[in-house]
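Input structure tokens:
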């Protein structure tokens, strides 16, 4: 099987690339190498005979047409994916997540690809007070990021209905694990704690998220790709719900740091209060998460403790400029 994996140098995408090669697939990794795309994430397969890399943008039609030629399936991870950055610069999210997805879909249609997997997010649903979202529930995105992801998956479903392209959509919950860019909550707080820097908790920290380990997320995407029904959406959650403040305290405990590092700061505009997913549909295909949250979190923290050479260079330059823009005034006012 030949796969075109877009965004395969990112966090979840690189984990999927490793999984696909381990399972005997040939992988073409197309990545724009934005700030969050790191070739180091796939360095250990860079010379594998089943792996090739193309430095390109999914919104570049000519590059995408060349990359998709001969692929049996396309798995689209490529996206701008950070809510805070989307609030600062929404246009870039629309360009990549909506326009880029449409360009990729059209190339896949023209090439006769057997299956297109659009990797999306539970954030398209918006917030839920109680219970859990099912795939048939309406979407109500709150941020420019989640709205752009909703736009991308709606384009994918439209290509299925209008052109007959075989499409499945996955909506994943908050994902964590090794090699995650340290702007997201868990790697940000782990690396800040290790350096004894303030952990900026939005508002009261009682925003609830459903957490899934990255390998379980990739396993779910693989299951949807292999066995999912064309035109269907599959929720993909780990089933471990916790407020952000609990995650923060767990990280401090695992890093041996004091809770005095916690700084409650001005909340994010439009911040969703709770996400939760009903994963019955995907479980019916035989998938279920294999990792428990406490154990997987401890393993993740150990990875960041041992891999300072990976994350320390990242937390400088562009990252530092973004961090100061996003948090400096909030922390000063806390």
């Amino acid at each position: 099987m030949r796969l075109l994996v877009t965004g395969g140098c990112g966090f979840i995408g690189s984990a999927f690339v490793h999984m696909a090669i381990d399972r005997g697939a040939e992988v073409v990794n197309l990545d724009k190498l934005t700030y969050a795309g790191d070739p180091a994430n796939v360095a250990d397969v860079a010379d594998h005979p089943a792996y090739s890399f193309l430095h390109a943008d999914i919104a570049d039609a000519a590059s995408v047409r060349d990359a998709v030629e001969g692929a049996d399936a396309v798995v689209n991870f490529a996206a701008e994916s950070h809510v805070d950055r989307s609030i600062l610069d929404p246009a870039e999210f629309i360009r990549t997540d909506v326009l880029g997805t449409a360009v990729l879909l059209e190339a896949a249609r023209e090439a006769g690809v057997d299956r297109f997997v659009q990797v999306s997010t539970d954030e398209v649903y918006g917030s839920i007070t109680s219970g859990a979202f099912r795939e048939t529930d309406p979407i109500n995105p709150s941020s420019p990021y989640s709205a752009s992801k909703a736009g991308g998956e709606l384009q994918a479903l439209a290509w299925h209905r209008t052109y007959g392209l075989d499409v499945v959509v996955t909506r994943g919950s908050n994902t964590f694990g090794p090699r995650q860019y340290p702007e997201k909550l868990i790697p940000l707080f782990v690396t800040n704690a290790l350096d004894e820097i303030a952990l900026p908790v939005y508002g009261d920290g009682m925003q609830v998220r459903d957490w899934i380990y990255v390998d379980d997320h990739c396993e779910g995407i693989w299951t949807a790709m292999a066995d999912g029904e064309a035109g269907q959406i599959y929720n993909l959650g780990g089933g471990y719900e916790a407020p952000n403040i609990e995650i923060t305290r767990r990280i401090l405990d695992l890093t041996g740091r004091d809770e005095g590092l916690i700084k409650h700061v001005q909340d994010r505009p439009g911040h969703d209060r709770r996400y939760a997913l009903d994963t019955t549909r995907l479980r019916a295909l035989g998938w279920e998460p294999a990792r428990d949250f406490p154990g997987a979190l401890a393993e993740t923290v150990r990875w960041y403790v041992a891999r300072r050479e990976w994350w320390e260079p990242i937390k400088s330059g562009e990252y530092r400029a973004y961090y100061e823009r996003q948090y400096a005034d909030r922390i000063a006012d806390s």
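Residues 183-209+244-272+293-333 form a domain with the UDP-galactose 4-epimerase; domain 1 fold (CATH 3.90.25.10). The chain has twelve helices and twelve strands.
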